């Protein structure tokens, strides 16, 4: 109605971090309200206190003058939505699971074995100040986290859920993460239908050890950095702080057994390579296991990429007398797992499989194939229920353990 401005909105999206990458075209360039392969922005402005039911009001909007508009056009859609009174006084909801998730919108952060990340929302009229969050992998032992904060009606918050041990992931019977909320403000949730969320997810990479990051900077060497985080979010390794252009770096990752996240960030938001900026040159990043390339990362990653993985904790230079490399495929599997042991020199060996209760459910003796320095076996779990199992490899005085996921 011709009054002062009630709201402002800076319309800009960080396109170098969209979940779908790489793409054709200039996808990394920031845009106003949209990015290629990503939903357009939605902004909500409350009319509370500015208009009453039944009133007729004129609503105007404008765009600040742009110094260099170029070939610019803006397409907007507007909706006026009316609500009745709030249905419930106490109503907490889980609206999304970002980690772990198999949804495309969360692809930059998954597959992941790090802290689960969920979105909670207050859908009650009373401000939400406390909440119990219970979470588990399907078939595993549930954990509970006591959240505190202050959320008004329809406000949301991203919550990282702590893990007590890696057995949280290994005791699963299915690749589904379950989370539920209860006791909002210590009371009874009056709408239970939005209290739970189930998120299917894909398994993460698994390595025996002997890991090395081999990477080459582009012409802007100082823009790119990497860090490795443990499952509690602490930094346990990172690149040399003095980086030059067009240099190959070989960085060993001597990590104890556990789950980790490798993250590359590029402050120029154009990755190690971008086709439309040839002046920046071309870099690359790879992850090696005992000298063999296991991952070749996409260099056109824009602002960042993440790679989550499990390692058994063997380090470069560690003596592995009987078995130097263990391969298991496919994993997960419907029933049969192929196991190949390279560096097997003919000692007595055995494969054993244990269920989540520690009971041995399958075993076989190992033998080399003629004069070959390797052994191969097929682990058949078709008679066993779906779930997570531990494969124990015993060769001489060497013991190694791998996780099997029976679908």
- Segments where pLDDT lies below 50 for 5+ residues? 316-323
Strand order of the largest sheet: 8-16-13-10-11
Main pleated-sheet profile: 5 strands, mixed
What fraction strand? 35-45%
Question: Which CATH architecture of the largest domain is right?
Answer: Sandwich
Number of helices: 1
Query: Could you give the order of the helices and strands?
Result: EEEEEHEEEEEEEEEEEEEEEEEE
CATH topology of the largest domain, by name, is Immunoglobulin-like
Total number of domains: 3
- Summed over residues and divided by their number, the pLDDT gives a mean of 88
CATH class of the largest domain equals Mainly Beta
Helical fraction equals: under 10%
Secondary structure category = mainly beta
Based on Cα principal axes, name the global outline. Answer: flat
Q: Kindly report how far apart the N and C termini lie.
A: 62 Å
- Number of beta-strand segments: 23
Radius of gyration: 26 Å
Q: What is shown here, in short?
A:
The N and C termini lie far apart (62 Å).
Walk me through what this model shows:
- The chain has a five-stranded mixed beta sheet with strand order 8-16-13-10-11, with no helix packed on it.
- It starts with 91 loop residues before the first strand and ends with a strand.
- The chain folds into three domains: 1-53, no CATH class; 92-200, Immunoglobulins (Immunoglobulin-like, Sandwich); 206-406, Immunoglobulin-like.
- Helix content is 1%, strand content 39%.
- The protein has one helix and 23 strands.
């Amino acid at each position: 109605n011709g009054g002062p401005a009630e709201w402002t909105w800076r319309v800009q999206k960080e396109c170098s971090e969209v979940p779908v990458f790489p793409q054709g075209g200039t996808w990394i360039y920031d845009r106003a309200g949209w990015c290629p392969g990503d939903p357009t922005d939605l902004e909500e402005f409350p009319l509370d206190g500015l208009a009453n039911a039944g009133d007729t009001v004129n609503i105007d909007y404008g765009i600040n003058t742009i110094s260099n508009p170029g070939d610019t056009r803006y397409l907007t859609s507007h909706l006026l939505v009316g609500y009745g009174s709030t249905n419930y006084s106490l109503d907490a909801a889980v609206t999304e699971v970002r980690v772990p998730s198999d949804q495309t919108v969360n692809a930059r952060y998954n597959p992941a074995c790090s802290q689960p990340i969920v979105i909670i929302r207050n859908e009650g009229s009373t401000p939400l100040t406390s909440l119990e969050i219970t979470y588990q992998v399907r078939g595993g032992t549930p954990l509970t986290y006591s959240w505190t904060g202050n959320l008004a009606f329809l406000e949301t918050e991203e919550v990282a859920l702590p893990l007590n041990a890696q057995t949280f992931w290994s005791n699963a019977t299915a690749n589904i993460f379950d989370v539920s909320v209860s006791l909002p403000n210590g009371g009874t949730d009056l709408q239970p239908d939005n209290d739970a969320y189930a998120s299917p997810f894909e398994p993460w990479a698994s390595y025996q050890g002997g890991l090395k990051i081999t990477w080459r900077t582009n012409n802007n060497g100082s823009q790119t950095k990497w860090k490795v985080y443990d499952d509690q979010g602490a930094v346990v390794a990172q690149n040399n702080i003095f980086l030059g252009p067009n240099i190959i770096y070989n960085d060993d990752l001597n990590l104890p057994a556990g789950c980790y996240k490798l993250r590359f960030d590029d402050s120029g938001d154009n990755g190690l390579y971008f086709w439309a900026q040839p002046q920046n040159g071309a870099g690359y990043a790879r992850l090696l296991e005992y000298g063999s390339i296991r991952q070749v990362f996409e260099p056109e990653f824009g602002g960042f990429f993440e790679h989550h993985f499990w390692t058994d904790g063997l380090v470069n230079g560690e003596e592995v007398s009987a078995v130097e490399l263990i391969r298991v495929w496919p994993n997960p599997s419907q029933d049969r797992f192929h196991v190949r042991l390279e560096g097997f020199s003919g000692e007595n060996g055995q494969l054993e499989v244990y269920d989540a209760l520690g009971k041995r459910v399958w075993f076989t003796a190992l033998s080399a194939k003629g004069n070959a320095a390797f052994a191969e076996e097929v682990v058949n779990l078709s008679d066993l229920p779906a779930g997570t199992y531990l494969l124990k490899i015993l060769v001489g005085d060497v013991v190694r353990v791998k996780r099997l996921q029976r679908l």
